[in-house]
Amino acid sequence: MKRSEINKALKEMEAMIRSCRFELPPFCGFTPEEWQEKGHEYDEVRDNMLGWDITDYGLGRFNEMGFSLITLRNGNVKLPKYTKTYAEKLLFLRPGQASPMHFHWNKMEDIINRGGGNVLIQVYNSDEQGGFADTPVEVHCDGRAFTVQAGERVRLCPGESITIYPYMYHDFTLEEGTGPVLLGEVSMCNDDENDNRFYEEMPRFPAIEEDEKPYRLLCTEYPEAR
């Protein structure tokens, strides 16, 4: 991705968050220059990849396949000194964007529509070879359990949520004509480097072409503590 695309995406997500009256923690507002001065007091942010995360999955089609995220809190499955067993994210999709089909080997998560339009989540069970199983999917949405067919899309209107279990394939698309969506994610510890199984192999984090100065640093870009 070009840095200019990332900067634009960051500012669009900030505007959506403001419109939903959601407040971010202070570290989300640090400039790249401010990060150069931060010491070990912010090791939890660095070590647990808190903060901004913009991805096009290495495909170069951010307006079609990709979206913007912020990890607000997280533990760490590799560093026992971080004892949080949970994580929280915000995700932002604008019309035309989608996320690729994937599952998590370990993480269970709730995806919550925090505001905006409607999001559609297509679901499959995984078979033993990591493909799509042609079996009904048991779905849990806001205390209601029901069954949908393999590949069916579950609609989440603002305020609604779905629980995604390990080995449950899922993606995100927007319902046409309903506008951009701010999603929340509440989950077990998040490990984006090791716990994503994409149906079509692709990188989780993008390569960046530096065509302008960064507006914010991404969670993969923090400098070492001073």
From TrEMBL:
Catalytic activity: D-lyxose = D-xylulose
Any Pfam family hit: Lyx_isomer
Top-level taxon: Bacteria
GO molecular function annotations of the record: D-lyxose ketol-isomerase activity; metal ion binding
Enzyme class, UniProt record, top EC level: isomerase
Claim: Nucleus is one of the keywords in the record: no
Entry-linked InterPro entries: D-lyxose_isomer (IPR010864), EcSI_cupin (IPR047581), RmlC-like_jellyroll (IPR014710), RmlC_Cupin_sf (IPR011051)
Enzyme Commission number(s): 5.3.1.15
Database matches in CDD domains: cupin_EcSI
Coiled-coil region(s): none
Xref: Gene3D superfamilies: Jelly Rolls
UniProt keyword annotations, A-Z: Carbohydrate metabolism, Isomerase, Manganese, Metal-binding
Keyword Transmembrane helix: no
Cofactors demanded by this protein: Mn(2+)
Similarity section: Belongs to the D-lyxose ketol-isomerase family.
Protein name as catalogued: D-lyxose ketol-isomerase
Annotated source species: Wansuia hejianensis
